[in-house]
Design brief:
The protein has 9 helices and 5 strands; from the N terminus they run αααααααββαβαββ. The mean pLDDT is 83. The longest helix is centred in the middle third of the chain and has 24 residues. It is elongated. α6 packs antiparallel against α7. InterPro entries: MPN, RadC_JAB, RuvA_2-like, UPF0758, UPF0758_CS, UPF0758_N.
């Protein structure tokens, strides 16, 4: 069932035009991207099924293409490509904002930006936001993968990349695939090790953010840095 087959007052496109995008529920916005449903399921029902299956918009947008492919109605490449394009647009929009404004002006944007990049990875990823002297974003780099310890994250590499970008400060970040965002003792120890190494080249560690889908933990906000 396509939009034209839905009752007029249930059509997301008409609702968006009349009341604005903010008036639409997540499923309605997603339905606008999907455009058509499948046999026995209209486009709104398909959108709701995807949200429930993958844990909301954040989980859906971070879902691997092969996982989407397994859902009836998502086997073709067009719809999956559109979802991935939306995610990339969101990443770039947030990245542009952080390049224009100091990270302290938009701490929630920093968390959301990191969630979009690494929040739903099935494995641990260690990333660094490199910042200029005004604490605006220069770039984000994913430096290490796997279980994060002082033996798997090399301080020398982090320092080398900071010097390469001429960074004045950094925000460290990694994800917890388990869903828990509480830092471990290893996380805290790693943070202090990197903080000491970067201080030798006059680069400040402003924060270490731990993310999972829809959640984030700031060590700076908790007084751990």
């Amino acid at each position: 069932m396509a939009f034209k087959d839905l009752p007029l007052d249930a059509r997301p496109r008409e609702k968006l035009i009349a009341r604005g995008a903010a008036a639409l529920a997540d499923a309605e916005l997603l339905a606008l991207l999907l455009r058509t449903g499948v046999a026995g399921k209209n486009v709104l029902q398909l959108a709701q099924q995807l949200l429930e299956r993958f844990g909301g918009l954040s989980g859906l947008l971070h879902t691997a293409p092969d996982d989407l492919k397994a859902v009836k109605g998502m086997g073709g490449s067009a719809k999956r490509s559109e979802l991935m394009a939306v995610l990339e647009l969101a990443r770039r929009a947030m990245g542009e904002r952080l390049k224009e404004r100091t990270v302290f002006d938009s701490p929630e944007s920093v968390k959301q930006y990191l969630q979009l990049h690494i929040g739903s990875r099935p494995h641990e990823v260690f990333a660094v936001l490199f910042l200029d002297v005004q604490h605006r974003l220069l770039t984000l780099e994913e430096l290490f993968r796997g279980t994060l310890t002082q033996t798997s994250v090399y301080p020398r590499e982090v320092v080398t990349r900071a010097l390469h970008h001429k960074a004045a400060a950094v925000v460290l970040a990694h994800n917890h695939p388990s869903g828990s965002i509480e830092p471990s003792r290893a996380d805290e120890s790693l943070t202090q090790t990197l903080r000491a190494a970067l201080a030798l080249v006059d680069v400040r560690v402003l924060d270490h953010v731990i993310v999972s889908p829809g959640q984030s933990f700031s060590m700076a906000e908790r007084g751990l840095i």
